[in-house]
């Protein structure tokens, strides 16, 4: 099995494409099973956030695996494969490992260093575990990616400013509204992003802050935790008329803020952090409405200069990638070593049968002595070479040793060879 990562993010797709690709939490298990039901896909993890949708997969061949993943994404999103291809980035094996570690560390985030991605990645891994679509390879990748993300935050100052998508959106809002402290704000949605929004607004001195959610109980709990005011969802229209700043981040598949609703609300700045969008695109152009969505944020975050903390995290990622590849190379040779030992045992068993067929006078005790002796000889002969080949396999270029063993001893090891050639990957990232 080989690692493959295929995805689209704010770097490669606009929000209208991302919302067509977005996978609702309730749809993840079905998508996972659909992926592992494909011919070339053996394991799968799905990561879907407000600004990225990624598939991590263990595949038996690059071209076949890529085709399977792209076909599934095209089917669930309704985007033709030819159109979808222009928005996707593809990473294979080492590049897939590096990408997953950079994602977990916040290096690939719209707001570099944001910590929310760790929780999102943990949820994605948990969903795959629950659906039983993460095997040995993706279990190890996800566990190590989460560890790398924690290490990056613990050992560097990459998140020292408490950066998040919400803080980035507020920076853009402040450039439009001026000072935000003391301005009334409304948060729509009481999920993880809604909670982050309430916490960020409170720290920034924005307020009073009100919260509304279809589930009143969740809004009540969140409001109590931060000293905010819960608002019944049925009173949303009235709440909109009494605020200046709105942060909306629901999981609704349909726009929550329609053109008519926003037109009646009066002057508003809306930070739409939901994918699919909570603000109806038809509301664009209303004279007293300013909408800051994922596209606006992406444009404001392009080409941020590399800070010392970022460079330190890149060094951590590079070291951890090499460590993981060493494990991967060692794991790859294990089936070959097992096949070699099995071949040796088969040869010993066959020779013993021939011997016992010719020497029927051997007692059971004598047969046992001969069998133990031959097995000990084989084990001693194979011990040093197999230990050494495991060590060599863990080094760069170590896959050649497994291939050499298979060729020398004519070993049949399932999935030990590539199903097809791997091209140069020069796609977007």
From TrEMBL:
Substrate binds at residues 49-52, 109, 114-116, 120. The record marks 99 as: Important for activity. Residues 171-298 form the Quinate/shikimate 5-dehydrogenase/glutamyl-tRNA reductase domain. It is an enzyme of class 1 (oxidoreductase). The active site is at residue 50. One of its GO terms (biological process) is protoporphyrinogen IX biosynthetic process from glutamate. NADP(+) binds at residues 189-194. It catalyses: (S)-4-amino-5-oxopentanoate + tRNA(Glu) + NADP(+) = L-glutamyl-tRNA(Glu) + NADPH + H(+). Its EC number is 1.2.1.70. Keywords: NADP, Oxidoreductase, Porphyrin biosynthesis. Pathway: Porphyrin-containing compound metabolism; protoporphyrin-IX biosynthesis; 5-aminolevulinate from L-glutamyl-tRNA(Glu): step 1/2. NCBIfam families: hemA, PRK00045.1-3. Homodimer. Catalyzes the NADPH-dependent reduction of glutamyl-tRNA(Glu) to glutamate 1-semialdehyde (GSA). This is Glutamyl-tRNA reductase. It comes from Paractinoplanes rishiriensis. The lineage of its organism: Bacteria, Bacillati, Actinomycetota, Actinomycetes, Micromonosporales. The gene is hemA.
């Amino acid at each position: 099995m080989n690692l493959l990562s295929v995805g689209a993010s704010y770097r490669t797709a606009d929000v209208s494409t991302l919302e067509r690709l977005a996978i609702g939490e309730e749809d993840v298990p079905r998508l996972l099973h659909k992926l592992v039901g494909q011919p070339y896909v053996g394991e799968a993890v799905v990561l879907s956030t407000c600004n990225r949708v990624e598939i991590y997969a263990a595949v038996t061949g690059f071209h076949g695996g890529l085709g399977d993943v792209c076909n599934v994404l095209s089917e669930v999103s309704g985007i033709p494969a030819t159109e979808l291809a222009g928005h996707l980035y593809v990473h294979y094996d080492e590049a897939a490992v590096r990408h997953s570690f950079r994602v977990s560390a916040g290096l690939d985030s719209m707001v570099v260093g944001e910590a929310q991605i760790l929780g999102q990645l943990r949820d994605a891994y948990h969903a795959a575990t629950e659906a039983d679509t993460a095997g040995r390879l993706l279990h190890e990748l996800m566990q190590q990616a989460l560890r790398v993300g924690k290490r990056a935050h613990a050992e560097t100052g990459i998140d020292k400013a408490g950066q998040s998508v919400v803080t980035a959106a507020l920076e853009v809002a402040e450039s439009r509204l001026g000072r935000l402290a003391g301005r009334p704000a409304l948060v729509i949605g009481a999920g993880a992003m809604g909670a982050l929004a309430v916490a960020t607004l409170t720290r920034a001195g924005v307020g009073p802050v009100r919260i509304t959610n279809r589930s009143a109980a969740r809004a009540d709990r969140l409001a109590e935790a931060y000293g905010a005011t819960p608002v019944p969802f049925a009173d949303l229209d009235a709440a909109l008329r009494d605020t200046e700043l709105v942060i909306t981040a629901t999981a609704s598949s349909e726009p929550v803020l329609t053109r008519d609703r926003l037109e009646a609300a009066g002057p508003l700045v809306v930070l739409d952090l939901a994918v699919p969008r909570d603000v109806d695109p038809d509301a664009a152009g209303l004279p007293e409405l300013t909408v800051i969505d994922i596209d606006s944020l992406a444009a404001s975050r392009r080409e941020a200069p590399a800070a010392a903390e970022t460079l330190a995290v890149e060094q951590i990622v590079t070291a951890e990638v090499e460590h993981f590849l060493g494990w991967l190379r060692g794991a790859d040779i294990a089936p070959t070593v097992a096949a070699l030992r099995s071949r040796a045992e088969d040869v010993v068993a066959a020779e013993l049968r021939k011997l016992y067929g010719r020497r029927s006078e051997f007692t059971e005790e004598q047969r046992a002595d001969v069998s133990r002796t031959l097995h000990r000889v084989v084990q001693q002969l194979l011990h040093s070479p197999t230990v050494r080949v495991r060590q060599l396999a863990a080094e760069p270029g170590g896959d050649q040793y497994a291939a050499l063993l298979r060729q020398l001893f004519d070993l049949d090891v399932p999935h030990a060879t590539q199903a097809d050639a791997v091209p140069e990957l020069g796609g977007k990232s």
